[in-house]
TrEMBL record:
Protein name: Metallo-beta-lactamase domain-containing protein 1
Domain Metallo-beta-lactamase span(s) in chain numbering: 28-189
GO cellular component labels: cytosol
SMART domains assigned: Lactamase_B
Primary residence: cytoplasm
GO biological process, one term: RNA 3'-end processing
Cell location: Cytoplasm, Cytosol
Catalyses which reaction(s): a ribonucleotidyl-ribonucleotide-RNA + H2O = a 3'-end ribonucleotide-RNA + a 5'-end 5'-phospho-ribonucleoside-RNA + H(+)
Quaternary data: Homodimer.
Source domain of life: Eukaryota
Length: 204
């Protein structure tokens, strides 16, 4: 097998959640591992989650030093907190691509996908913030979209636009596009679900 065509395994290490509390809300993001020709972590939870994230990666046969890319779908603190664990990786935080003190030029604003390998690409999906990105992974089972807070969870039709968002119309547009093209959605604060679960619903 050509190593560039190595199949990807998608492993949701932790399902995200968000619930109201007396203090405000209690939330953490979904954290996903992609194992393949390139190993990728998408969204690294809060800064207090380092030990459990490191353990989960080791339980899946890798070390933090084996991660080639860290992708944070946007820059909110519950999505970037453990980036420090991955010293060997290229970091994509929203539309910012860097390694150590080197910041690379890449024109996400033009709608270009950032190709990690033949099966993994990062695309701009603004709305929740104007810097949001999603990760698309092609597999034998279909196209997986790791979307961060483009989708809060599978039942968020009456919720997502009531949250603090930078551009609700843009978010609505990219939600619709993702549901048309992806087979599975991994949302920012809930378990993975099949895209067709939501596709026929009126408000997307």
């Amino acid at each position: 097998m050509n190593p560039e065509n190595k199949k990807c395994d998608i492993i949701v290490l932790f399902d995200g959640y968000s619930v109201n509390s007396e203090q405000g809300s209690q939330s953490n993001c979904t954290c996903t591992l992609i194992k393949g020709n390139k190993n990728v972590i998408v969204d690294t939870m809060t800064a207090w989650d380092g030990p459990k994230l490191e353990k989960a990666i080791e339980e899946n046969g890798l070390k933090c030093s084996d991660i080639d890319y860290v992708v944070c779908t946007h820059g909110h603190s519950d999505h970037i907190g453990c980036n420090y664990l991955f010293q060997n990786a290229i970091h994509i935080v929203g539309r910012c691509v860097s390694k150590k003190d080197v910041y690379y030029n890449f024109d996400f604003a033009a709608g270009k996908p950032y190709l990690i390998d033949v099966n993994i690409r990062v695309i701009p999906t603004p709305g929740h913030t104007l810097q949001d990105v999603s990760v698309l992974v092609s597999t034998d089972k279909g196209l997986y979209a790791i979307t961060g807070d483009l989708f809060e969870n599978k039942d968020d039709e009456n919720l997502w636009y009531r949250l603090e968002v930078d551009d609700a119309e843009l978010q609505r547009k990219y939600r619709s596009e993702m549901l048309r093209h992806a087979d599975f959605i991994i949302p920012g604060h809930g378990p993975m679900f099949p895209a067709k679960y939501k596709y026929d619903q009126i408000t997307i």
